[in-house]
Amino acid sequence: MPDKYQIVKKDVLTPDISRISVYAPLIAKKAKAGQFIILRAAEDGERIPLTVSSCEGDEVTVIYQKVGDSTMTLDELNVGECLADFVGPLGMPTDIDGCDNVAVIGGGLGCAIALPVAAALHKRGAHVDLIGGFKTKDIVILEKEMAEASDNLYICTDDGSYGFSGFVTGKLQELLDSGVKYDRVYAIGPLLMMKFVCKLTAAADIPTIVSMNPIMIDGTGMCGCCRVTVDGQVKFACVDGPDFDGHKVDFDETIARAATYKEFEAMRRENHKCRLEGMGNG
Questions:
Q1: Is 269 contained in some domain?
Q2: Residues 63 and 109 grouped into a single domain
């Protein structure tokens, strides 16, 4: 039997994105699509919230991108080593009931969060169109897994190097223009991507759920860092979400708050270009 919170599998998906499976039987038994965990790579490390990508047996799988000091520390751990903490499941599960024909849209690393939502909907019997957006072909992740979790998979690249040439909103508009009718749209990814998906679906009168990932520390609603304004009211993403009605989220406020500490992101490598700079794309 592995040790508590031991890394039992590790895969490199791209030079900047990795996937680990952690021995955490109690979490694996309870976690549902849309929920997240908070981990610490070391005793003196930062708390990192990561959405549960999948659960199999006693293992919980999460996917992370190396964007700062803490995720770089996490990436230094290998199979057989243990995390200091692995807490969850946290947050509310994604509502997958009451819809038969849905579009699930992921942007970049958001595809790792879109995947379990699409899989849960597909398993429940809904028809799922999954749209995954990436900057270029070289950083496409989880294509096989997304294809298995959907009826139709559409990969989009900003530069046209693979699949549909353009943003996910362009593909969604093309599908709507062709006569496809959706009961609900799920959008998960960069804030600007979700904002413009919601503008499009609002015009088409399609209910839309977004997954919010603001600055988060404790994950229990105590610190207040993850507050978002929804329909004029303050909500906490860690306990009230992370899913919210996308047509009621104040995206402009959330985008402004997300940029607060960007220039202070602790980077370990010299001359490393912060990938947060490009998070508006997708």
A1: no
A2: no
Residues 125 and 174 in one domain: yes
Relative to beta strand 227-230, strand 233-236 is antiparallel
Cis peptide before 214 (omega within 30 of 0): no
Q: Where are the alpha helices (DSSP H) in the chain?
A: 25-30, 69-75, 111-124, 143-148, 168-177, 191-203, 251-258
Q: Do 65 and 112 belong together in one domain?
A: no
| pTM of the full structure | 0.87
152 and 177, same domain (yes or no): yes
Q: What percent of the chain has pLDDT over 70?
A: 91
Residue 257 pLDDT class (50, 70, 90 cuts): confident
The domain containing residue 154 runs over which residues?
101-258
The Cα-based distances of 206 to 18, 66, 124, 126, 249 in angstroms read 34, 34, 20, 16, 15
Q: What is the pLDDT of residues 118-127, one digit of tens each?
A: 999 999 999 9
In-domain check, residue 41: yes
Biggest alpha carbon–alpha carbon distance for the chain? 54
